[in-house]
Amino acid sequence: MPKIIYNHADGTHDVVDAPAGTSVMRAAVTGGVAGIVGECGGQAMCATCHVYVRPERLAGLPAVSEDEDEMLDCAAAGRDSERSRLGCQLFAGEAFDEIEVDVPESQS
Amino acid sequence: MGTATQGSRVVVVGAGQAGVETAACLRDYGYVGPITLLGEEPTAPYQRPPLSKDFLSRRVDADGLELRSADFYADRGIELATGRRVDAILPAERRVLLDGGGGLGYRHLVLATGARNRPLTVPGADLDGVCYLRTLAEAVALREWLTRPRELVVVGGGFIGLELAAVAAAGHRVTVVEAAPRCMARVVTPVVSDHAEAAHRRRGVEVLTGTGVRRILGTAGRVRGVELAGGRTVPADVVVVGIGAVAATGLAAEAGLVEGCAKGIITDEHGRTSAPGVFAVGDCAAQPGPGGALIRLESVPGAIGQAKRAAAAIAGVRGTPYGEHGMEDERAPAVPWFWSHQGELRLQIAGLPEAYDRAVVRGDPAAGRFSVFRFSAGELAAVESVNRPVDHMAARKLLARSIPITPEEAAELTFDLKSAATARA
Ligand SMILES: Cc1cc2nc3c(=O)[nH]c(=O)nc-3n(C[C@H](O)[C@H](O)[C@H](O)COP(=O)(O)OP(=O)(O)OC[C@H]3O[C@@H](n4cnc5c(N)ncnc54)[C@H](O)[C@@H]3O)c2cc1C
Ligand code: FES
């Protein structure tokens, strides 16, 4: 099963097995990973699912869509031009089989 | 389990968005006592918004709707009981009575009973083929109806009705019947109503406004059409009623907790009701809004915010926790916001749909991307955005911090809203 590693600012991390088709946001919310909110349920309308993808995991990810691009500019924690993504737009089994992200310190 | 912990039990009634969030936040905020979450629906707690969107269009299935995984509740020591209804509250004894007998004592009780469909009461409303869309069971039934091409009449041009009309338009003949002169009239400005109606018509949906339903016609117990107030009959084999919701206040009312508020269970800004230890959050609660007046929100962000504040009060967390748990900045009160997804229309509303004396449009409705800024006595009151999430995000900041902005600035596309929202703070 695809795997997602969420790294937190305090040095801890969560590892979640995500069934194919599950987004980085949904996997975090259902599994109770702190720091990812997903208020709009994955509609790319709230930017509370912002994550920084680890550089070595960027290859193979789908391009940032126009909607995602606009929302990333609104994220509470600063945008990283390379690494920032909306967790609700990255799907296990489609965008990645294994991914590692850093969770921002704030989502709102 | 000793009496000490037994005596600190939190009982949450209703395992929907607000109830689950309350239980989860209690643990996040360090609450160690027992937590029992009781829900009358048979399934694990799920998200409602996709029922009229991605679930109906089959982009997700039921297991993609769950709010939290089964492990989540177990790992946090949250006792989740589904298929359990609370039949009565005994506030003086601090106990609830469960269906099928038995009771449960609490130190704190959180009512998160949500809202129920407002029923259509015209003749024929009980015919086979008349459905509603609030619960997963209702959504499953509707999805089943729509496995064959249908003539579908949607009664009510509100968010839910229009969302499902947008999905059903692919493959079915859809008519929306709205009694008010325009769709979503209570909550959006005419510019947005017009735009949405035009978009639905382009999709092939017939939108009839300013007309009520006189009765539903049937043959052998099954729907065959809808008779409008003007006399016209629209053929139908499925009728979905989306005429709003009423707060589920029954339990609280019977316990004497609802004082003169027909709209919802009255609470303070932390969700406290008039009974000691009893809170109410989510769709069932009427809480003081940003202006202080009681408002009942029917939205996921509203439910989440209220759950967080009630949990903080119960857990004894000082101030308002934020940051790690995604809480809004405590210096800035929560700005109510809402979204609706209708086909290619992504609508977001920041602020409350209250009276306004001026509305300006930013962007071009013809291009399908614009926002309407509503002002009241010169102050920004609410912002509706269609496919302009960036305006929406800036608007929430402007509203939260009462940052002044003029109608002229709002309407001027070259005026940088986002910078204003941060720079003028
Ligand atoms: C089809 C649909 C689409 C929506 N779309 C959006 C959207 O796009 N954006 C948005 O922000 N909001 C949307 N909403 C609104 C949003 O889903 C609600 O505001 C939110 O679910 C409220 O959460 P709640 O916990 O207060 O109530 P609910 O989620 O309704 O949960 C209440 C639960 O309490 C249970 N209950 C009631 N009485 C008892 C009892 N006596 N004992 C035990 N259990 C009981 C009920 O069975 C129910 O499961 C939508 C709603 C619907 C129905
Ligand atoms: S969950 Fe709202 S933008 Fe991703």
What does this structure look like?
Chain A: Keywords: 2Fe-2S, Iron, Iron-sulfur, Metal-binding. Chain A: One of its GO terms (biological process) is P450-containing electron transport chain. Chain A: Its cofactor is [2Fe-2S] cluster. Chain A: Belongs to the adrenodoxin/putidaredoxin family. Chain A: InterPro entries: 2Fe-2S_ferredoxin-like_sf, 2Fe-2S_ferredoxin-type, Adrenodoxin-like, Adrenodoxin_Fe-S_BS, Beta-grasp_dom_sf. The complex is a heterodimer of chains A (108) and B (425). Chain A has helices spanning 24-31, 66-72, and strands at 3-7, 13-17, 50-53, 84-86, 98-102. Chain A is α+β, with helices and mostly antiparallel strands. Chain A has one domain (3-102): Beta-grasp domain (Ubiquitin-like (UB roll)), CATH 3.10.20.30. Chain A has a 5-stranded mixed beta sheet with strand order 2-1-5-3-4. The longest helix of chain A has 8 residues, at 24-31. Chain A is globular. By secondary structure, chain B is α/β, with parallel strands linked by helices. Chain B has 3 domains: 10-116 and 246-315, FAD/NAD(P)-binding domain (3-Layer(bba) Sandwich); 119-243, FAD/NAD(P)-binding domain (3-Layer(bba) Sandwich); 337-423, 2-Layer Sandwich (Enolase-like, domain 1). Helix content of chain B is 24%, strand content 29%. Chain B has helices at 3-6, 17-28, 70-75, 136-145, 159-168, 190-202, 250-254, 300-315, 389-400, 407-411, 417-423; strands at residues 10-13, 35-39, 78-82, 86-90, 95-98, 103-105, 108-111, 115-117, 130-132, 151-155, 173-178, 206-209, 213-219, 222-228, 233-235, 238-241, 245-247, 265-266, 278-280, 285-288, 294-295, 337-342, 345-351, 358-364, 369-376, 379-386. In chain B, the strands form 7 sheets. In chain B, strands 3-2-1-7-19 form a 5-stranded parallel beta sheet. In chain B, strand 2, helix 3 and strand 3 (78-82) form a beta-alpha-beta unit. In chain B, helix 2 (17-28) packs parallel to helix 8 and helix 9 runs parallel beside helix 11. Chain B is globular, with a radius of gyration of 22 Å. Chain B starts with a helix and ends with a helix. The model of chain B is unreliable at 1-5 and 321-332 (pLDDT under 50). The chains are: A alpha+beta (108), B alpha/beta (425). At the A-B interface, helix 1 and helix 2 of A face helix 3, helix 8 and helix 9 of B. Flavin-adenine dinucleotide binds next to helix 2, strand 2, helix 8 and strand 22 of chain B.
